Amino acid sequence: MKQHRGLAQRILAALLTMSAVIALSACSLRSQSSATPSTTSSTLSGPIPVVATIRPWGSLAQELGGNQVKVTTIISDPNLAIQEYEPKTTDITTIGKSRIEIVNGAGYDDWATKSVPKDATLVSAADAVGASEGDNPYLWFSKDVRNSVATEVTEAYIKALPNQKAYFNARLKAWKKSETTLETLIQTVASQSKKKLTYAQERPIAYYLMADLGFSDKTPKKFAQALSGNEEPTVDEVDEFVNLLGKSKHPSIFLEDSTRQSTETQEKLVTTAKGNAVPMTDVTEEMPTQETTLNEWISTITTNIAKALELRTKIQSEDSDAESTQATVSDSASPSTSGSDATPSSTQ
């Protein structure tokens, strides 16, 4: 029990330290954005007009561009179903005025690539790593994709404002520092367990992050395939998932998405997970409004996963202690071999 508590304290201390460094890196980027760059490009009068389809890439674009970009994010409401989004006329107009557009790709926001101006630079997260439609589209949770997109966006900024090359490179360097800190945090959490950790998720959002953390996905395949195809799982597929969460050897953690409108399926899964003491945490499709940078958001999710696993350790430790205590009580309550009620040890 003491070993579990000591390990939990060490994990929490590491998480708090790393989260603080990520926050400080973000502050450094914000302070850089307030500084006035030395020159401006002759091809642009003012900040570069940048459009991003979703907040993860919009926030990254702002970090990398500072006060030399004006970023507009098309979908900023965390409660919207992004893959079902229908662009408004104002969205198309905004895209038409952009100099740089950042999309996710992989079939996630195809509508946004149909109105890109001829003189604009298109940065696609999917194209940066060779992902295509049918692949898991939640690419911002992948460290490889984040690094590739950050590099391509910076190159696009330098192309648009070549006189600000040093400024943009400095901001990319500062961002890479925060990314390294995030990856160290992920590696720290991944290295804590001596055994293979597993997870199941209501929606296939955190696939890349959980892979980086070393978790194996135990979500029932048919259930996951239905959601990947934007279809409702069948009753049998839901029951299979419910049974998985109800087993004694359940997944190490269950990931839910609380931003979606509650459904009967979600209620069944959450109720079963809670009833069987399966550790849970929330992983949403869109960045919550309280998160200002992509890396800070992923750091929060990673920290919450680690905290949930500490809870699992405590529950298991308490159960083990309870069993030991019960055994001790049972031993002490056993009848002695003396006294009128004692059972003879042998018969003549």
Automatic annotation (TrEMBL):
GO terms for molecular function: metal ion binding. Its main location: other. One of its GO terms (biological process) is metal ion transport. It is found in: Cell envelope. One of its GO terms (cellular component) is cell envelope. Keywords: Metal-binding, Signal, Transport. Pfam families: ZnuA (PF01297). The keyword Signal applies. It comes from the Bacteria. Residues 1-25 form the signal peptide. Residues 330-348 have a biased composition (Low complexity). InterPro entries: Bact_metal-bind_prot9 (IPR050492), ZnuA-like (IPR006127). Residues 316-348 are annotated as: Disordered. PANTHER family: HIGH-AFFINITY ZINC UPTAKE SYSTEM PROTEIN ZNUA-RELATED (PTHR42953), METAL-BINDING PROTEIN HI_0362-RELATED (PTHR42953:SF1). This is ABC transporter substrate-binding protein. It comes from Bifidobacterium aquikefiri. The lineage of its organism: Bacteria, Bacillati, Actinomycetota, Actinomycetes, Bifidobacteriales.
